[in-house]
Specification:
Layout: E1 13-14, H1 17-26, E2 34-38, H2 46-52, E3 55-59, H3 63-72, E4 76-79, H4 88-91, E5 98-103, H5 109-118, E6 125-131, H6 132-138, H7 149-157, E7 159-166, E8 171-172, E9 179-185, H8 195-207, H9 213-216, H10 218-221, H11 240-253
Parallel strand pairs: 2-3, 2-5, 3-4, 5-6
Antiparallel strand pairs: 1-8, 6-9, 7-9
Length: about 250
C-alpha cells in the first residue's frame, strides 16, 4: 500500500536492503532473546527480525504504520505509544536478555539515548541508527570539538562503537544528512554515584565549556573543591572517568 511519511514525526524509512542486511548482521542476539524495535515504520527491518527471533516487540506511535504492521506481520507484539513515554521495565525480558534496535527520528535522538542510558540495567545491547554528527559525539575523545555531554554520559554508561555510515539515498524520503549505525554495549560496572549527580556535574561543566572548570562548576561545587582535580582545565579536557570521580566525591560530601 502507498504510505505517505509524516515530516512532523521525522519519518525517513529505510529502503536499502544492503543496509538492512548489515544491521541484521550486527545484532548479536539469540533466537529466544527479546528484541525491541524503536520506530519500525512499515516494517522493512521488522519483517526480517520476526523471521529470525521468537520474541519481537515494536514501539510505533503512528497509527497508520501500526495498521500496516498488524496487517502484514504475524508474531509481532506492537506497542502504539511515544517512545519517550515508554516504561522500559515493563518491556524487558525477565528471564533472558533484551536487545534494542532502532532507526531514531533525528529530532528526538538525544532524549531517546538518555532514556536508554538511564534504563541501561535492563538491556544487553542497542543497535541504533542516527544522524552521523550525533554518532560521532557518542564516541568522541576528550579535547575534540565533538566531545561533550553525550560523549561523557554514553561512555560512562555503555561501550559505544560506530559500526558504519548510511547514505541519505538509503531512505525514503532521503534526509539531508548522513546517518550512522552505532552499537551500545551495556557492559559497564555500576557507577559509584547516582545518575542524577553525574548528569548535574557534566551538564553544568559543559554549559560554559569555554570557561575554566573552577568557574563553570561553581553551581554544583559551591565552596567545595575536592582535591585531586585540575580545575584550571576546561570541560572538554576531562575524561569521562574524572567526571564520575568528582560526582562520587560530591555525593559523599553531601
Amino acid at each position: 500500500m502507498s504510505f505517505k511519511t509524516k515530516k512532523s514525526l521525522g519519518q525517513h524509512f529505510l529502503t536499502d536492503n544492503n543496509i538492512i542486511a548489515k544491521i541484521l548482521k550486527s545484532v548479536r542476539a539469540n533466537k529466544n532473546d527479546r528484541i525491541i524495535e524503536i520506530g519500525p515504520g512499515t516494517g522493512a527491518l521488522t519483517k526480517w527480525l520476526v523471521q529470525r527471533y521468537d520474541d519481537v516487540h515494536a514501539i510505533e506511535v503512528d497509527q497508520r504504520a501500526v495498521e500496516v504492521l498488524r496487517l502484514n506481520l504475524e508474531g509481532l507484539t506492537i506497542h502504539q505509544k511515544d517512545v519517550l513515554k515508554v516504561n522500559w521495565k515493563e518491556l524487558i525480558f525477565e528471564t533472558g536478555e533484551t536487545h534494542v534496535i532502532g532507526n531514531l527520528p533525528y529530532y528526538i535522538t538525544s532524549p531517546i539515548l538518555f532514556s536508554l542510558l538511564e534504563s541501561r540495567q535492563y538491556f544487553k545491547e542497542a543497535i541504533l541508527m542516527m544522524q552521523k554528527e550525533v554518532a560521532q559525539r557518542l564516541v568522541a575523545s576528550p579535547s575534540s570539538k565533538e566531545y561533550g555531554i553525550l560523549s561523557v554520559q554514553t561512555q560512562l554508561m555503555s561501550t559505544p562503537d560506530l559500526l558504519f555510515d548510511v547514505s541519505p539515498n538509503s531512505f525514503s524520503p532521503p534526509p539531508k544528512v548522513m546517518s550512522s549505525v552505532i552499537r551500545l554495549r551495556f557492559d559497564k560496572s555500576p557507577l559509584n554515584c547516582s545518575d542524577k549527580i553525574l548528569k548535574s556535574v557534566v551538564r553544568t561543566a559543559f554549559n560554559q565549556r569555554r570557561k575554566k572548570l573552577s568557574n563553570s562548576l561553581k553551581p554544583v561545587l559551591g565552596d567545595l573543591q575536592p582535591e585531586g582535580f585540575n580545575y584550571d582545565q576546561r570541560a572538554e579536557d576531562w575524561e569521562p572517568a574524572i567526571y564520575a570521580d568528582l560526582a562520587e566525591r560530591i555525593e559523599k560530601s553531601t
